[in-house]
Design goal:
This protein is an alpha/beta fold. It contains 9 helices and 8 strands.
Length: about 230
């Protein structure tokens, strides 16, 4: 199965990507992983991307597209993959279709994790991160025993800049502008499946696997859920 995972910040894409990829026996491929592998490996694309990142600039689509093309051509992705973080816009979706046409592996399905934006603000703005060990707590869903103190190491908890409500709302605005057309693009080609991403992690995973199983190869679809 060749799968693209989309959803707003705070929808739980990273967590669900791990479980979904493991269930269907496909590699989870994120743009973050691709960038880190190219930069740490000193590839030509990695060096080029690093120049933009060091200057504080966005890495151009053509560089990102080339990295994705290279990653999808690797042996472990031949029988399927889960893409998280790519494409982010309609132009990248068109590029992805071109890449998959070249390698003869058309996209199977796009899974949209739907969650209300107010819930996303609540989820992300309630996070507190330990300065010492990096563990993330939540004021409502997973609070520490003592306010402002990490249960694991006793370190001080703080709110990351990315988790401030105004910053979260800005990120959601950007997501809505960039991704709403992308979702419509995949819906128009009958490749989009949407699920409710609210609730316990295991419940969302169960919904995702149930929605995706019809798109998997018969042999995989017949395997019991893990």
């Amino acid at each position: 199965m060749r799968l693209v995972l989309v959803g707003p910040p705070g929808a739980g894409k990273g967590t669900q990507a791990e479980f979904i990829a493991a269930h269907f026996g496909i590699p989870k491929i994120s743009t973050g992983d691709i960038f880190r592998a190219n930069v740490s490996g000193g590839t030509d694309l990695g060096r080029l991307a690093k120049k933009y990142m060091d200057a504080g600039d966005l890495v151009p689509d053509e560089v990102t597209n080339a990295m994705v093309r290279d990653r999808l051509s690797q042996d472990d992705a031949v029988d399927g993959f889960l893409l998280d973080g790519f494409p982010r816009n309609v132009a990248q979706a068109g590029e992805l279709n071109g890449i998959l046409d070249e390698i003869g592996s058309p996209l199977s399905v796009v899974l949209d994790l739907e969650v209300d934006f107010d819930e996303v603000v609540k989820r992300l703005s309630g996070r507190r991160t330990c300065k010492k060990c990096g563990h993330v707590w939540h004021l409502e869903y997973d609070p520490p025993s003592s306010p402002g103190v990490c249960d694991k190491c006793g370190g001080e908890l703080y709110q990351r800049d990315d988790d401030h409500p105004d910053t979260v709302r800005h990120r959601l605005d950007v997501y809505a502008r960039q991704t709403a057309p992308l979702i419509d693009f995949y819906r128009s080609s009958d490749q989009l499946v949407a699920i409710d991403a609210l609730g316990a992690v295991e419940d969302v995973t169960e919904r995702a696997i149930e929605a995706l199983t019809p798109f998997a190869d018969d042999a995989v679809a017949d395997e019991p859920a893990s």
